[in-house]
Protein 1
Amino acid sequence: MSVRPIRGGRRSMGSRLTLLVAIAVAAAIAVCAAACWFLVRNELSRQLSESLNQPPVGGRTVGMILGNCSEHPTGTEAPGPFLRLQQIVRADGTRCAQGWDAVVVDPADQRVALRLGERRLRDGVTDSGDPVRVLTVNVGPGIAVSVSRSLSDTDATLRGLALLLAGVAALGVLGAATAGRLVSRTALRPVGRLTGAVEHIARTEDLRIRIPVDGDDEIARLGASFNAMTAALAGSRERQRQLIADAGHELRTPLTSLRANIDLLLHSENTGRQLDPQARKRLLTSVKAQMTELSGLVGDLLELSRVSGGEEPIADLPFHDVVEAAVARARLRANDVRIDAGLAEWYVHGREGALERAVVNLLDNAVKFSPAAGTVTVRLREGGLTVRDHGPGIPEDELPLVFERFWRSSTARSMPGSGLGLAIVAQAVRDAGGDVALSNPPGGGTLATLRLPGRATPAQA
């Protein structure tokens, strides 16, 4: 199974989380502030435009402006009773102002003066450069009135609002960064404990450490998974240590005997004292038997180390085909022992090689303990595999020990074998999620029962 690499960064996870929170809050505040500013601007602009539309400009008002223009042609005097800046615009572009400051005439204002009933709203400036909102209305042939109001107050209000919103945004981002920092510290505290535990294990190789797990969220699940992983690693290390200790103990006896026999042969060659031919033959036969025993023991140790790894489990593995292949292999070395097999379809999730090796070991044991011309019965029904022989059986007090490494029954110690065959069976079946047991059935012999979870038809059928 391919696993994507974990990509880190120069910043710590806490600082990155704080930065992300601050950026997210800043973006949200910026959007809200901009929306608020534009809404207020549009509303102020609408109110200002509506204020220019009332009251309507009448003939009396035009006459008063014209009268004032004759007295104050420059339009620089106070506007008198008028609240708005007003001026006459003629079709030729001349103007007559009534107010504090005259508005610069736009060509569009001249077109309004030429068209009866025409009106136009625009933004303009006064002679002194003050921005104003201008409403120009035709009031007669070749003449129009422009009413205007300054935009300075509106612009000042919008600038103040912008500064206020900017301050609120800055405080919001600062508060969000502080809250993000506190949240990240709280949320990542379990990750910190996990990191400390991993660093401690990497430094000391102490797999006994455990992380306290509270709750059932993702961090708690990560901690529980880490505890399960370290427990599995500790168990694997313990099994490895025990295997090495047991293997050393089992290898010591044949190696000592082999060394003694070889030393005796070398001593005979070095001293020139030839051994009796029969004694020499027995000695060489013993050496060969010990070498065969060592080879078998080493092979079983390698098989035991491979049975739990090196092969990906297969979904919907046809276990009946695995058993059939194991039966074919066992028949090749069964001599005069007959193997009677009856197999029904059963699909499991497991490693094909490991399960085949487990079934072969069960069959080899059954063949080895079967009497001459005996029969080994193999049945597979609904996930239950049974292997029955008619040998001497196993003492009841020894049945709980049969799957331990290097353990050999009192009835089997005179036969060849390393005592690892059934341990390999137990390991392979356990990895596939099943169980295996030996019993003494009525009528004598031994009955091995292996059960694996699965189904009678493949999932894609």
Protein 2
Amino acid sequence: MAEEKILHASIEAQALARHQRMSPQKARLVIDLIRGRSVNDAKRILRFTPKRAAKHIEKLLDSAVANAHVKAENAGMPLDTDELYVSGAYVNEGARWKRLRPAPMGRAFRYQKRTAHLCVSVSERHMAAQQRGAAAAAEAEADKGVRGTARRVRKALTGKKSPSKKKGKK
């Protein structure tokens, strides 16, 4: 029972880029375009989006996919990139850089350069995880049958019965 849950667990990974030099409001315009889409669709959208934030978010998406591959490799499970989708994507406000601009009559105007924290999470579709688990279980079952068949064929060829342990006095 517990093994089945492990086999059907979907792979989830995330990537985080902090203190990116862009306005969070402008980054949200781009990140809203890819939320909930498949990874391939998201990359296509980002490649053709004429916003400066798109380049940074595309790199972040590639990093999240690479993290998913590493997690799958460490778990010993195969991972199909076509089955990944953007499960979560959000932008938080980072620290602001306060700067001064000279103004007339010895004064100064203050302005702020905004930064953003970007986060992109990718995960595997549940159906893909179930299919991967079913394929692994079928492969294990088939592998078990091959070993047993080889053993039976070997016994038939040698014509010997398996040695039975006899209880007797020494």
Protein 3
Amino acid sequence: MSKKIKIFILLLLIILPCLIMGYAHYEAMNVQIKEMVFSHKDIPPAFDGKKVVFVSDIHFNRYFAEKELASLVNRINGLNPDVILLGGDYISSDTLDVAPLFASLAKLQAKYGVYSVLGNHDHWEDASLMQAGLENSGIHIADNNSFWIKEGADSIKIGGVGDFWEDEQLIENTINDIKTSDFCILLSHNPDYMEVLDSEEVDLMLSGHTHAGQGTFFGLWAPIMPSSMHQEYIQTGQKYRYGWKQKGEISLYVSSGVGMGKIPFRFFAWPEIAAITLKKK
């Protein structure tokens, strides 16, 4: 092998990782808006065309700090949402101060309000603190709780369950007063809950948790998935990594989330704001 070829290979080994890490950091810091339409026969006429904005896994910390969060809130409000749903993991283990987080989240604006559940990271840090902060910010707590949203004579149900790893899941608190003909949206931070969810009343489930794999092989496969990290829980592998899933009559959307946790990079797992327009089928 010639000296020039050796030098070229050496430079490639040095430059290529730098380019990959530079791109991965750029991707992590550029939140996309993903516009979608969800059609269903149970959506009542008054909610046809209403916009639901779903955001998960903010992971407020030094990498996704006050400036980034303020921009996120402004972009969400700029979508003119009718409902804002928050899917948990608002903080990470290296979050230093939660006051700025709640101050920003308090500025979220939606016609029918903002609803939230906690994620595993929120439980690992301080679930009571997080719920109190969200509630004081004017955000409805949907962990094992539910709410009717009404428009004229029509209504839809917004419910949630506790985190699949760190809480209990009382689905009955959402479905105990609805009929199968009612339209129901369920929040579950962890999409693996889909494996045990058995309900004819839930139409749409929204989850996060996975970060779409965060570091993937060009968006096709992720070497590390949360479901494989804790052997005591259901093992689903890549099944609920990202996107639309279906189980019987229940549709599930798994968002890639917004933040990146302790590692400030994403690779073909763009962070997103999911804007879902409801459409009566």
